[in-house]
Write a structure and sequence with these properties.
six-stranded mixed beta sheet, RbsD_FucU, RbsD-like fold, monosaccharide binding, 5 helices, intramolecular lyase activity
């Protein structure tokens, strides 16, 4: 049995296979995920686990060179937006429309579905490199 790090075998596997510029998406429980996209469903109940909790864990184990969010989060979910931007000041952040974010799902290596139940609580994480 694995002793440390991420114990979820699906998340650990996806992270170990990422190359530079590959993406994964952390999603709220309402984001539509195409059937052909790998979905790692962590949702237990509304709000659990939160997107922020899972993001903090993933950031410890993944080199993230950029975070992309839907621009709608800036005015429809200001509390979460403030948390995300305050916690990750050193990571480039950009914004796309929610429609464009949903279109990016098909190119993601995986979507990690959380129990987050607040508007526009989805982030695209772009893999960086360790050198």
């Amino acid at each position: 049995m694995k002793k440390t790090g991420i114990l979820n075998r699906d998340i650990a596997s996806v992270l170990s296979q990422l190359g530079h510029t590959d993406t994964i998406i952390l999603a709220d429980c309402g984001l539509p995920i195409p059937q052909q996209t790998l979905c790692i469903d962590l949702s237990i109940e509304l709000g659990t686990p939160s997107l922020n909790d899972i993001l903090q864990l993933i950031m410890q184990h993944m080199v993230v060179e950029k975070i992309t969010m839907a621009k709608e989060i800036t005015f429809k979910n200001t509390k979460l937006h403030h948390q995300l931007t305050a916690n990750y000041l050193n990571v480039e952040t950009d914004y796309v429309s929610h429609k464009e974010l949903k279109e990016a799902i098909k190119d993601a290596k995986a979507v990690i579905r959380t129990g987050e139940a607040t508007p526009f609580a989805n982030v695209i994480l772009h893999a960086g490199v360790i050198f």
